[in-house]
Design goal:
about 45% helix, five-stranded antiparallel beta sheet, alpha+beta, Immunoglobulin-like, 7 helices, Four Helix Bundle (Hemerythrin (Met), subunit A), seven-stranded antiparallel beta sheet, single chain
């Protein structure tokens, strides 16, 4: 029995999807920073008493750990749940920050940020990250339980030290920590955009930092995988599948096979993005209803489109035109909300300029292609109206 070409196309797209996912995973690598014991000892041997005031200069049972690049975390935790923290790193200009987050995300975190102005004035403030734009990072706000001991920032031998004390109700154990810096000075206490950042899971009860493997690495890998799969599925394959269907009709059955294969690849990539997104949501427990809601809505539409593919009436069926309206408009709605959700995802994840520029270039390219092809299509239809077929019926 001859195999239905629709099923043959879907099998081909499934094989291609496996190759895409394998390629994606093989190129998404989270690298951790490691320092040998000699470097660790050298970084932790600095005499804090020569430039830091009490209690920061004399921490009982102090633990010192290099955590990221030149960042060194010193801390001491008492039995009454007071924890004194001294964060240090190489400094030239701009600001340095350490944030506390419930889920490892920058959004809704509370941070201590310090800097030394060009005039030599030391500044340290608590910030509440209410959004991902500089104007939404609010100075002198946050949820950190600071004690009455004033926070301190000191610059000594090209190293900046941020020192502050917190008081919790219970012993502080494993905690997602955000580390970030910006090379531009804050303007009227408003932070400039960070140049780099990382998240680590730090165990304050044992002094162990998880920077290269485990949950922190898994979080960043899942976040990037979710973004890559979603962008490929709803941002690349599905739009081009729609382009093939609209502008390649003159290529007889070629347009149909291209449309089916590319749309199936896009659908499967989108489903994979949702699966990774659900896993990510289970780890974060974050409140991002708009992104999740649109994602579910787009997923439902894509499933309906797949079902429509298997129930397509024949050309001479009286319901074919209604099926065409349904399929075309549902596809356009899917592409629109898919694009909106990609932009939301990039914004929520706090992705860098590369993601924004890359997706902006992709959207711009698709729009230019559509405009050019639509103009050519309308020109062709106009010419067909102006020059009807040479053979005509005799009116008599």
């Amino acid at each position: 029995m001859k195999e239905d070409p629709r099923f043959r196309a879907s099998k081909s797209s499934l094989v291609f999807l496996v190759l895409i996912i394998n390629f994606t995973h093989s190129n998404i690598v989270v690298q951790g920073d490691s320092l040998d014991s000699d470097n660790s000892k050298m970084l932790c041997d600095a005499d804090l008493s020569s430039f830091l005031p009490l209690p920061y200069s004399n921490l009982p049972n102090m633990v010192c750990k290099p955590v990221w690049n030149s960042y060194v975390l010193r801390y001491s935790q008492t039995k009454n749940h007071k924890i004194t923290i001294v964060l240090s790193t190489i400094y030239t200009s701009g600001w340095v920050g350490m944030g506390f987050s419930k889920n490892g995300m920058m959004l809704n975190s509370s941070c201590m940020v310090g800097w030394v102005t060009a005039e030599g004035l030391a500044r340290i403030r608590q910030y509440h990250v209410k959004g991902l734009t500089p104007s939404q990072v609010k100075p002198d706000q946050g949820e950190l339980p600071l004690t009455s001991i004033p926070p301190v920032v000191v610059l000594s031998s090209a190293t900046i030290y941020l020192a502050f004390q917190l008081k919790y109700n219970t012993t502080l154990k494993t905690q997602p920590i955000l580390l970030a810096f910006g090379t531009q000075y804050p303007h009227h206490l408003h932070l400039t955009h960070h140049d780099d950042k990382t998240t680590i899971n730090f165990d304050f009860s044992s002094g162990n930092a998880d920077t290269s493997a485990g949950s922190s690495a898994s979080f960043f890998k899942d976040k990037r995988t979710h973004g890559v799969l979603g962008l490929l599925g709803w941002g690349l394959f599905l739009p081009f599948g729609a382009i093939f269907a609209r502008y390649l009709k003159h290529k007889d059955r070629i347009w149909y096979y291209l449309h089916v294969v590319v749309q199936f690849i896009g659908f499967l990539l989108g489903v994979a993005a949702v699966v990774v997104g659900v896993s990510l949501d289970n780890k974060l427990h974050d409140y991002i209803p708009t992104h999740k809601g649109i994602g579910i809505f787009v997923l439902v539409i894509t499933i309906l489109q797949v079902l429509a593919f298997f129930t397509r009436p024949s050309k001479d069926n009286k319901y074919r035109k209604y099926w065409n309206w349904y399929h075309n408009w549902l596809g356009r709605i899917c592409l629109l909300f898919g694009a909106v959700n990609i932009v939301l995802g990039i914004h929520i994840a706090g992705s860098g300029e590369a993601w924004k520029i890359g997706y902006g270039f992709l959207v711009g390219s698709v729009l230019v292609i559509c405009i050019v092809l639509e103009a050519l299509l309308r020109l062709k239809r106009s010419n067909e109206k102006d020059f009807p077929p040479a053979i005509s019926m005799n009116s008599l």
